[in-house]
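ugh ok fine here u go
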Amino acid sequence: MASTVAATIKRVALITGASQGIGKCIAQRLASDGLRVALNDIATKRDQLQDVAAQIRTSGGEAIVVTADVSREDDVKAMTTQVVQEAGGLDVMVANAGILGPFKPLHEVSAEEFDQIIAVNVRGVMLSYKHAAQQMIKQGRGGRIIGAASMAGRQGFPNIGPYTASKFAVRGLTHSAAKELMQHKITVNAYAPGIILTSMNLYEEDSVNGGPGSTAVKSIGLPPQTPVGEPEVIASLVSYLAKPEAHFITGQTITICGGIMPS
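structure:
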């Protein structure tokens, strides 16, 4: 009887930073996989979130909107509680929210710029992991926690020092949390994108630098022929990591970069 009941529970995924780019694509993919999705971003992006939710519902999926600033613990706690109350639980946390910051050498970075990147990219991921883990442990049915790292979390690149530091930190958090949560049948993994064609990597200067993504490629010292990808390639990996059959993959940071660097 217990297994029958468990099979009827619709799994719930919470995706932070879901108003655009990789987060939006992940949310759409998980909804198409049959999960009930909760879409998060900051309050000023509520209208964008509502648009994404409407698109998901039009395609036959289920979606709710939960605004929160992931760098604030009270917000993350309230966000998690709202998801559980409105969607019925939490089975997949995708801690996707992140910011890049300006392209500049470290000696020109202000303490305020550094702190902002760390607050969103590191504290935001930590808090998302923490409160998702607490809820998943309480539910007792395991879960999937997935974070946003970067190829810059495997190798330093010029002009994005704070971002690079933040993504190295995400790798460390992911690997430690995986060891802590395996006893609860909760896997913890991260995806490490290369140059993905989202607003984070698209600039007006692309028109003179060689096409979409070329300014970002040039700014971090990569060669002009560096491959770029669409957000769907990340969503595809997250889709698999979120599935029940991915239960034996944990503590991994998987690089998706078109071969720019070895994993």
